[in-house]
Amino acid sequence: VAFQGEKGAYSEAATFELLGRNAVRPVPYPSFDEAFQALSTHSVDLLMVPIENSLGGTIHANCDLQLQHSLFIIAEHDFRVRHCLMALPGTKKADLTKIISHPQALAQCDSYIRNLGVVKEAAYDTAGSAKLIADGKLVGVAAICSEIAARHYGLEILDEGIEDDDGNFTRFLLLRNAPVRIPLGIKCKTSIVFSLENQAGALFKALSVFALRDIDLAKIESRPCKPDVMDRLERLFWGMSGNMLSSNRQFNVRVSAGPAHKKQRTDNEIVKPTYRYLFYVDFFAPADEPNAANALKHLQEITSFFRILGSYPRGGTLAGLDNLGTKVVVPASRTLVKPKRKVGIIGFGTFGQFLAKKMVSEFDVFAASRDDYSTIACELGVSWCRSLDELMQQRLDVLLISVSILSFEGMVRRVTSAINNVGLSDHSMLVVDVCSVKVHAKNTMLALLPAACDILCTHPMFGPQSGKHGWGGLPFVFERVRLLDAPRCEEFLRWWSEQGCRMVDMSSEVHDECAAGSQFVTHFTGRVLSRLDLRTGPINTKGFDSILQLVDNTCKDSFDLFFALYKFNPNSAQQLQCLEAAMGDLCKELRDGMK
Question: How far apart are CA 22 and CA 92, in angstroms?
């Protein structure tokens, strides 16, 4: 698998994350041009390239290279960028005098570097900076790069997760010389590129081919193209009647040469405009689905250039790679041949919907809630159940209880009653909670659920806001409490791991002790500060902005959640006493200083 950069680059880490480590050999190339050329000449089987970053935007060089080479997108992967600080073994942070890395990585860790008070210096590559330190035995110099770079170059990680913004994601594309054949039932995305004549309403007409057919667009972006390059693309498109774009019969999309009324040009008649634009569009459908195929056929009739860049599974799923033979082994955890597990969600509010959006691609999801969310459930592809009895009749494999901590005990009692009402007290089912307080949830489920129910306590420490760009690197705390069917539980945990979560195996008791010192203190501090009515001003420091953000984040949650963190976690009461004592001591110290 080709990638650009030195060994240890984020592209290599993304390759391992998507394809696994078995029988995959990443091959580094100094430039994107050389990496694309390697795949085009069949020197490698696949190519992993970054295409856009949530902070830095689109990597246009790779868009241009996609046009120059007849390659196809066969998969995508959202990679959570976690920057690590590393240096020669034995180095302490206090010993550092300089930090080197790629300019973008330095910019993304600017606050952290300034707090260290060291000099920063730009290098040609993130992993390359680690290589420079290792090769030159540079004492007192640290690099910012990926965790695997430390392993490659024998460096010691001094700190990790040092980026200023935890919403730093890079979308990678996996490319191949031929498209993939995608089995029926797999949710797909298709990427296309086209150009239009500069006429009033041209873009509106182009996009209407999707709107009229209710095809959901994931992305649209315009990109300037040199007029001579555009002219060459259009001539090739017309000359080959578009067949170069869909010679792959799997797409079943016939590409026309454009409207019959278009006048044939000659060199003397061409008036080259200063600016020409290409439009890149991603939409949620396979290219050979009849509705999408009709849309693309319609689009080709009004474009001067058109090409399908790839039709591929969404969200890091792999499919259709079996024809690579023994050289590439797709991780078994990513195959989609097993029957889907049935997962039920009780509590279909904001968080329940947030989980369902991810789960519907892997599981048959059913939901029930106090309020009627049937319309939203239908839009998400979730089967709506009007009562708990109806939900239990689905003979679920996994039941996920997503209700407030205050409502949890009452809901578990109702679940137990529903199980008995439908005569399934002997039915084996994994019951999972997602409460922020764990001992209360654990003891409640052990006391009330039928003995046939397995119990898994979990705390996904993220939500719709912090997880909106993906779950990579976000902590998922869990404890296996009672298991009769251990493989089912491990399969469910593996799903969370495959979403990129950082899996934390921790007892409920330790969790609550830690939460009192972190989660409760955070919420308490935010709510205390909110009562001061703090407001932004013209001379805000970064620290003050962080305080305002803390107030905003904590007060978005209900007071019931805050109260439950106190009521159902005995450690919080002790922590509150410590906070009161600390506040008193500090106030006394200030006042004594005035005497």
Answer: 35
Residue type, position 153, single letter: Y
- Token couple for 280: 């890149």
Q: Judge whether 172 counts as a catalytic residue.
A: yes
Residue in this structure with the two tokens 């978005």, named with its chain if needed: 556
Q: Do 194 and 278 touch, CB atoms closer than 8 A?
A: yes
- Token pair for residue 27? 């091959």
- R_g over Cα of the chain: 28
Where would I find the beta strands (DSSP E) of 434-565?
453-460, 475-482, 502-505
Type of residue found at 215: I
Structure tokens at 435: 């409460």
Structural contact between residues 124 and 104, judged by C-beta atoms closer than 8 angstroms = no
**523 three-class SS:** helix
Q: What is the pLDDT of residues 265-304, one digit of tens each?
A: 444 455 556 778 899 999 999 998 889 999 999 998 898 8
Work out the number of other CB atoms within 10 angstroms of the CB of residue 65: 21
- From CA 182, how far away is CA 309, in angstroms rounded? 15
**Which is it for the CA torsion 490, 491, 493, 499, positive or negative?**
positive
In whole angstroms, what is the distance from residue 9 CA to residue 285 CA? 32
Instruction: List the structure tokens of 515.
Output: 């939460």
Q: Which of 15, 91, 126, 170 is catalytic?
A: 170
Q: How far apart are CA 197 and CA 304, in angstroms?
A: 7
Catalytic residue among 36, 172, 478, 568: 172
Q: Three-state SS for 143?
A: strand
The whole model's pTM is what?
0.53
